[in-house]
Amino acid sequence: MTATVSLTEKNRAIVESFYTAVLAGDQATLDAVVADDVVVDEPEYLPFGKVYRGKAELGGLIGQIGQFLELATLKVHYTVADGDRVIACLGLVDVTTGEMVHLLEQSTLRDGQIAEITLFYNDPQSMLGKPKIV
C-alpha cells in the first residue's frame, strides 16, 4: 500500500476544510483554500442569487446567506470527488420555516484552491417570493 494521496482525495479534503472553516469562522483557512479570483454562481431565483467574483464578494455572500439559512446548522452529508471537481451534499435550516433544506454545491479546484462554486438547490420553495437583496 502506498502513502500517496490522489489528487481527487486532496481536492475532497480541501473542500471539506472549506465547509469546516465556514462553520468555525476560520478566515485563515478560507483564505488558504479559496482562490483570489473565485467565482460563485448562485441561482438568480434566490434572494442572494447572482454571480460573485473574488474572495471579498464570497465573504459578503456568506453573510447574506445567513439572513435566510442558519449557517450554524450547516451539515455536510457527504462529498463526491473526481479529479478537480468535488460535489458536497449539504443541509441547512431555513430561518423562516425551521425546516432543513438540502442542496448540492459543485466546487472546481485549480492549483489546490477552490476556483469555482456552483449551487444546485433541491427545493427552493421557501426561498421563492423573498425580496432580492443583491
Briefly say what this structure is.
With 134 residues, this protein is an alpha+beta fold. 28% of the residues lie in helices and 41% in strands. It has a six-stranded mixed beta sheet with strand order 2-1-6-5-4-3.
Polypeptide structure, described:
This protein is α+β, with helices and mostly antiparallel strands. The protein has a single domain (7-123), classed as Nuclear Transport Factor 2, Chain: A (Roll), CATH 3.10.450. The chain is built from three helices and six strands. It has helices at 7-24, 27-33, 54-65, and strands spanning 34-41, 51-53, 69-82, 85-94, 100-110, 113-121. It has a six-stranded mixed sheet. A hairpin with a 2-residue loop joins strand 5 and strand 6. The longest helix has 18 residues, at 7-24. It starts with 6 loop residues before the first helix and ends in a 13-residue tail after the last strand. The mean pLDDT is 91.
- The name CATH uses for the topology is Nuclear Transport Factor 2, Chain: A
| SSE-based structural type | alpha+beta
Write down the overall mean pLDDT: 91
Overall geometry comes to globular
Q: Could you list the spans in which at least 5 consecutive residues all have pLDDT below 50?
A: none
Total beta strands: 6
Level-2 CATH architecture: Roll
The radius of gyration over CA amounts to 15 Å
Instruction: Give the helix tally.
Output: 3
Number of domains: 1
